[in-house]
Here is the input.
Amino acid sequence: MSARYDAVIVGGGHNGLVAAFYLARGGLRTLVLERRDIVGGACVTEEFAPGFRASPGAYVLSMLRDAIWHDMRLRERGLHVDQAGTATRRGAWKRSGRCPRTMPVRSSRTRRRSRGSPRR
Here is the structure.
């Protein structure tokens, strides 16, 4: 006997998983199909070279709406995302007393321009 589903999500990335969550919560029998052996899409952490692990795009995870974090109880389930951004990196640099080469520190002049101020 074949299983029957109300909704089929093709792709088990973060968007597909969120969609499947809401469909299932709404009472629909939902199937998620993913070609890889791991789900999460750009929000997974993988080894890209021996001994080096990173997420190819985990920044998108930090952009999930607060309602999604709440509804899916992501924090309660142990998910933690370090917030990224210049301010956070600059704060880490000031605390450590050193400036790693991988942490760009933008000047106030650059910030003014990025907010739309006219270039001088």
User: Anything to note?
Assistant: Residues 7-83 form a domain with the FAD/NAD(P)-binding domain fold (CATH 3.50.50.60).
